[in-house]
Amino acid sequence: MAALDSLSLFTGLGLSEQKARETLKNQTLSAQLREAATQAQQTLGSTIDKATGTLLYGLASRLRDTRRLSFLVSYIASKKIHTEPQLSAALEYVRSHPLDPIDTADFEQECGVGVTVTPEQIEEAVEAAINKHRPQLLVERYRFNMGLLMGEARAVLKWADGKMIKNEVDMQVLHLLGPKMEADLEKKPKVAKVRLEETDRRTAKYVIENGENYKTPGYVMTPHTMNLLKQHLEITGGQVRTRFPPEPNGILHIGHAKAINFNFGYAKVSICFIWAFRYRKEEAKFFTAICDMVAWLGYTPYRVTYASDYFDQLYAWAVELIRRGLAYVCHQRGEELKGHNPLPSPWRDRPMEESLLLFEAMRKGKFSEGEATLRMKLVMEDGKMDPVAYRVKYTPHHRTGDKWCIYPTYDYTHCLCDSIEHITHSLCTKEFQARRSSYFWLCNALDVYCPVQWEYGRLNLHYAVVSKRKILQLVATGAVRDWDDPRLFTLTALRRRGFPPEGINNFCARVGVTVAQTTMEPHLLEACVRDVLNDTAPRAMAVLESLRVIITNFPAAKSLDIQVPNFPADETKGFHQVPFAPIVFIERTDFKEEPEPGFKRLAWGQPVGLRHTGYVIELQRVVKGPSGCVESLEVTCRRADAGEKPKAFIHWVSQPLTCEVRLYERLFQHKNPEDPTEVPGGFLSDLNPASLRVVEAALVDCSVALAKPFNKFQFERLGYFSVDPDSHQGKLVFNRTVTLKEDPGKV
Question: What's the whole-number mean pLDDT along residues 302-319?
């Protein structure tokens, strides 16, 4: 019955029945809209016009600080706020002024309350815009961008009704140009867009210069802002300063590569810090690995800093917050603070002197863990009220020892450490958008320099999981060996598989920086890797499933030395030498006794060339074992220029090294292994049983004998391979990085 009443109430606001039913599915939105409509009815009666209903819906769906609902509804119901621009200004005002009480005079001025825009003013503004663009209008007529006229009129008359402006534009344009003619209905020819360079595309959105922080949308100005920015510019000398703030409790993955490239790439002409919020001694290995991966990707941080470097200053600022009445000691337990709308703290208005004494007691260890916290007096963008600044924790810090038993939270530390280090651009992933208001608020509350915070979307890949918890499950169940298993998309795993850092960086550049989360196909990353390896990985020959071939008329008494180009497309890059003897080994799949149509390699009556030798071999005899399996072939050879050119040339090895080759495929069978609708049994049920095949007795030519871990080669016709750290003096181990673009079974 209550649902029917709400449905009737919502449709009475002008919502369609379908929209009203969708709204009812969102409990938070429907509760706010119900409260707003009920309050408005107390002023307007049971019937609410559609325009007011639209504003009430916009308010309920966009308001984060629910404490302001009643205040804003009163302005809408009394028609003091009656347009969408006024509502947007009101929402921005309450977001940027979270503290009580609201200055109503300032609020009304900022929201255009009481401002009347007459039809005559609209007429004059539209006429001025049309006169400005009159020559172009007369040429382009109705193909002219009329939105430009409306935008210029709106810029002059901020609080004018948009529909009235549009109607006035339509009328005046019709008066100037007359009715549309047939030529006006033709589409305007498209102008080719200028293609931005890769680096320009990545940063085209972020055009605010250092020192112009106040131009950032949502940036809160104070009387001290401009002076603080001036001091900041004097200290930095106009440098761009960013920081990469990894959480040192896991290994970096492909998504972090985007963050590293954005932070270091944006500051490439200036400096980038690596900043660690807080980590335990046992996590030091992760932090070391993070620094190693940053260096591997080709970046050098200006400085590595830690939140613990600034514990004394952070504590002093916390005391100052209390003195300014902007923080208080609270005794609510953690479970009481959970949920979207926890009850306000009963200690919020305790005297400043009392909070100072209690905070000092927290520092001296007079409270147990969870018994007291320091909270800041603000409402965050997601509606969370009074976030915690300090907690009691009796855990020695591996850098400061037992000096502290209270530790600052991320919400408190992040912006203040950025301010201390004069970071110009705090670049964060999208989930930190809800913390932007607290970031600006805290710097301004303490009258310290406030950097810019920008958010961008995460980078994910299909057929992958990257969360620490899930990778640990994969390791625990034996699905993968460790964090650096080449089937994973951690950076250590990609390095072990043989992905060059330039390929990863190029991939991140192609993906670019967007606000929306990006999920890419792995083959796009592999294409960037191939582009790099094609120019950097020297060629060698290897045989995975070998078949012995005896050349019965070998043209020399002993083996020949064959010069093989390291890069066949550019022989200036040098050669390496391989032996060519009477016994060679070829891929078993390069021979067929009974070939199917289209098979071009070795068969009865079908000779084949041996790459780089200048010789062609022709089958004479097939030697089989007791089981009927082909054990070897006997062939004769001739010079390639002494007869008809063969249909194909195949790779081979002679006097080879025995090695182990690991062939990797996707770890998961479905695109989204974490999606319960796609994989109901969970990601562990989606493992690909063929994700790893080990060839323990592969053969490779002797040119790679001195290869070291992470050296990369292209094994001709097979793919790109990298030397694995498991290699030892007796046996090399190769990981297949990626296949060649072509089908490796074709020549």
Answer: 93
381 tagged catalytic: no
Instruction: Give residue 523's pLDDT band: very low, low, confident or very high (50, 70, 90).
Output: very high
Backbone phi, then psi, for 611, in 5-degree steps? -55, 135
Helix ranges (H only) for 157-303 are 162-177, 198-203, 225-236, 254-266, 284-296
Q: What is the pLDDT of residue 192?
A: 44
Give the whole-angstrom CA distance, residue 742 versus residue 718: 9
Instruction: Give CA–CA dist 300/278, Å, rounded.
Output: 21
Q: Is the pLDDT confidence value at 280 over 70? A: no
Give the strands of the sheet with 630-639, arranged side by side.
583-587, 546-551, 630-639, 615-624, 608-610, 649-650
What is the predicted pLDDT for the residue at 653?
97
| The pLDDT value given to residue 207 | 44
Options 141, 468, 481, 671, the catalytic residue: 468
Active site residue 596: no
What is the rounded distance in angstroms from the CA atom of residue 661 to the CA atom of residue 360? Answer: 63
Q: What is the pLDDT of residues 681-722, one digit of tens each?
A: 999 999 999 999 999 999 999 999 999 999 999 999 999 999
Contact in structure between 7 and 21 (CB atoms under 8 Å): yes
CA-nearest of 491, 488, 639, 629 to 556 is: 639
Q: Are 449 and 290 in contact (CB under 8 A)?
A: no
Q: Which residue has the tokens 């009691």?
A: 392
User: Class of the 119-180 domain?
Assistant: mainly alpha
Ranges of beta strands (E only) in 230-376 are 241-244, 271-276, 303-306, 327-330, 373-376
Catalytic residue among 152, 247, 320, 545: 247
What are the extents of the domains in the chain? 6-111, 119-180, 306-408, 547-646
Q: What is the mean pLDDT of residues 29-34?
A: 90
Q: Tell me the percentage of the chain whose pLDDT exceeds 70.
A: 91
Q: What is the CATH number of domain 306-408?
A: 3.90.800.10
Residue 133 scores a pLDDT above 50: yes
Q: Is-contact 66 341, C-beta < 8 A?
A: yes
Radius of gyration of the chain (CA): 35
Could you please state the CATH topology (level 3) that the domain comprising 6-111 is classified under. Helicase, Ruva Protein; domain 3 (1.10.8)
Lookup: tokens for 54: 């639209």
Known catalytic residue at 108 = no
My answer on whether omega of the bond before 408 falls inside 30° of 0, hence cis, is no
Annotated catalytic residue, options 350, 458, 638, 666: 458
Question: Cis omega (within 30 of 0) on the bond before 217?
Answer: no
**What pLDDT score does 610 carry?**
97
Amino acid at 474: L
Residue 643 in contact with residue 670, Cβ under 8 Å? Answer: no
The strand pairing partners of 622, in sequence order, are 633
**What is residue 719's DSSP assignment?**
E
In this structure, what are the phi and psi dihedrals at residue 525, rounded to the nearest 5 degrees? -65, -45
Burial 532-558 (b: 16+ CB within 10 A, else e): bbeeebbbbbbbbebbebebeebeeee
User: Residue 729 pLDDT > 90, yes or no?
Assistant: no
pLDDT tens digits for range 534-589: 999 999 999 999 999 999 999 999 999 999 999 999 999 999 999 999 999 999 99
pLDDT at 603 over 50: yes
Domain 547-646 matching CATH 2.40.240.10: the answer reads: yes
